[in-house]
């Protein structure tokens, strides 16, 4: 069971946000302005959809009860968006350099080889994202439908960005993401940001309710919501700081 918690943690904001910012920073540093903008917009859109779906249930009870769906899994969404893109960018420029060097000597062959490595990298990232999604179900954080939907949303984000990158004239250079990938997986991590608590606070303020909706019974809680922190750390009656 401990391995499921480790896999689940890879989808946390303290891991995926670091890689997402690293991707954007590298693209900006390489002056790939359009790719950087595309990445930021796609990733932000995926995060917004996942957050809005969870808030819709917490504040108003909107969801699909027969599927036990109360919103896209944020961990699964972020993992599926970030890991395939990071691994794709890690290998993309290497394949392009080899292609340029051997294009005349072996027309077509290097295209297939470079493309094979890139597809393998993207597949590896997608497999890792699927593992994170399964872990979210195993640790009881989400239902299977929520984890699967979040994974598909993130993969759609990654797929659109990769397609944009392959079609771009200003191909992105190989980013130095390997060290960041290793650091996020191997190094000790700080306590993850409790993003769900922030979403809960926002949903309550927007809905004007003092009770959150619960999956059990699919109805509002019997008692008003109390933030899970000491009274001295509470702000606006619903938020921990």
Summarize the structure.
With 241 residues, this protein is mainly alpha-helical. The protein is built from 8 helices and 4 strands, in the order ααααααααββββ.
Low-confidence stretches: 94-107
Spatial arrangement of strands, main beta sheet: 1-2
The count of strands amounts to 4
Largest sheet: number of strands, sense, barrel closure: 2 strands, antiparallel
Order of helices and strands: HHHHHHHHEEEE
Shape: elongated
Specify Rg, calculated over alpha carbons.
Answer: 20 Å
- Overall pLDDT confidence: 82
The helicity comes to 55-70%
Strand content: under 5%
Cα(first) to Cα(last) distance is: 31 Å
> How would you classify the quaternary structure?
single chain
Count of helical stretches:
8
The SS-based structural class is mainly alpha
Q: What is the number of domains? A: 2
Task: Explain what the structure shows.
- This protein has 241 residues and is mainly α.
- It has helices at residues 2-9, 13-29, 33-60, 74-102, 109-138, 144-167, 178-186, 195-207, and strands at residues 213-214, 219-220, 234-235, 239-240.
- The chain has a two-stranded antiparallel sheet with strand order 1-2. It has a two-stranded antiparallel ribbon with strand order 3-4.
- A hairpin with a 4-residue loop joins β1 and β2.
Search tags:
241 residues; mainly alpha; 2 domains; two-stranded antiparallel sheet; 66% helix
């Amino acid at each position: 069971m401990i391995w499921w918690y480790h896999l689940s943690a890879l989808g946390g904001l303290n891991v995926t946000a670091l890689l997402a910012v690293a991707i954007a920073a590298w693209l900006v540093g390489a002056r790939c302005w359009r790719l950087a903008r595309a990445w930021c917009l796609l990733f932000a859109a995926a995060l917004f959809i996942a957050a809005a779906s969870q808030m819709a249930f917490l504040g108003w009870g909107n969801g699909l009860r027969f599927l036990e769906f109360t919103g896209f899994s944020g961990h699964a969404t972020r993992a599926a968006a970030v890991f395939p893109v990071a691994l794709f960018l890690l290998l993309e420029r290497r394949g392009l350099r080899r292609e340029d060097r051997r294009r005349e000597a072996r027309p077509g062959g290097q295209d297939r080889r470079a493309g094979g490595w890139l597809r393998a990298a993207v597949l590896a990232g997608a497999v890792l994202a699927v593992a994170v999604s399964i872990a979210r179900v195993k640790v009881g954080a989400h239902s299977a439908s929520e984890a699967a939907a979040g994974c598909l949303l993130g993969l759609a984000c990654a797929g659109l960005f990769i397609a944009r990158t392959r079609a771009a004239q200003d191909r992105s250079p190989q980013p130095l993401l390997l060290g960041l990938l290793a650091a996020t997986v191997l190094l000790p991590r700080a306590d993850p940001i409790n993003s769900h608590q922030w979403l809960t606070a926002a949903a309550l303020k927007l809905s004007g309710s003092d009770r959150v909706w619960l999956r059990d019974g699919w109805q509002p809680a019997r008692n008003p919501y109390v933030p899970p922190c000491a009274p001295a750390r509470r702000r606006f009656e619903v938020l921990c700081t």
